[in-house]
Write a structure and sequence with these properties.
Layout (H helix, E strand, L loop, with lengths): L10 E5 L3 H7 L4 H22 L3 E8 L7 H21 L5 E6 L7 H14 L5 E9 L1 H17 L10 H5 L12 E5 L17 E5 L9 H13 L11
Helix pairs in contact: 1-2, 2-3, 3-4
């Protein structure tokens, strides 16, 4: 069990990596790994809500993932469809607010409609806010924010010198949320992969090379939180916070 005097991260980001390798190790098709990863996503999301995490952002599908084989992309979209149907049918009693970050206009209309319904259904919930990063890229997010502010300048609503960090933060998909305190990446990869580039300036990263995402457990999450608690967070200063 976790210690009661630990600091609980307010916002956790997870790069859900290793589904394909998990399947390959077992002689299974890649889609079997994605299904296992999707099931584990549900488990970890519920656990985060249970222990009191305020925000959870999961990297589900990046802007670069469209380059994967068409059959794999189609299968991932079917998984998203199944998840949304389940969320509308079975998650009515879950105190979890679901939001999607990224350019969902690139998805099929039926998925866009289900996304809108899911967000509307959960909008008033007061527990965990779950951000699902779908067709998301950190660079694309910053370009979008710059374009939004440029339009305001063009319309005479804003002067260029008025633009500051707070204004840029308010133009990100996660506006109004705290930046992630902790970002976890299982699978042994040591890179950010274009995930929350603006928001993660002072995030603590925990890279776990002994586990693939489908095998990531509640105990592994607690282990990452313990590592987070062992860090000295100075945010560019000299005094730990």
């Amino acid at each position: 069990m976790a210690e009661t005097n630990r600091i609980l991260p307010e916002h956790i980001g997870i790069i859900m990596d290793g589904n394909g390798r998990w399947a390959k190790k077992r002689g299974l098709p890649r889609m079997a790994g994605h299904r296992a990863g999707a099931n584990n996503f549900r488990t970890i999301t519920r656990y985060c809500n249970k222990i009191g995490i305020k925000y959870l952002t999961v990297y589900a599908f990046s802007t670069e993932n469209w380059s994967r084989p068409k059959e794999e992309v189609d299968a991932l979209m079917r998984l998203l469809y199944d998840y949304l149907q389940e969320a509308l049918r079975d998650f009515r009693e879950e105190n979890i607010r679901t939001r999607f970050i990224g350019d969902v206009t690139a998805l099929q209309p039926v998925l866009q409609q289900l996304i809108a319904e899911t967000e509307e259904l959960s909008a008033d919930r007061t527990g965990l806010t779950l951000n699902i990063a779908m067709n998301y890229g950190g660079r694309a997010e910053m370009v979008r924010a710059a374009q939004m502010l440029a339009r305001r300048v063009q319309q005479g609503q804003l002067a260029p010198e008025d633009i500051d960090e707070a204004m840029l933060s308010a133009s990100m998909y996660t506006a109004g949320q705290s930046d992630p305190d902790l970002i976890i990446r299982p699978s042994g990869e040591y890179r950010t992969s274009n995930f929350m580039l603006w928001q993660s300036a002072y995030s603590e990263y925990v890279f776990m090379d002994d586990i693939l995402w489908p095998d990531f457990t509640e105990e592994d999450l607690e282990r990452a939180i313990d590592i987070f608690n062992s860090r000295s967070r100075r945010f560019g200063g000299t005094v730990a916070k």
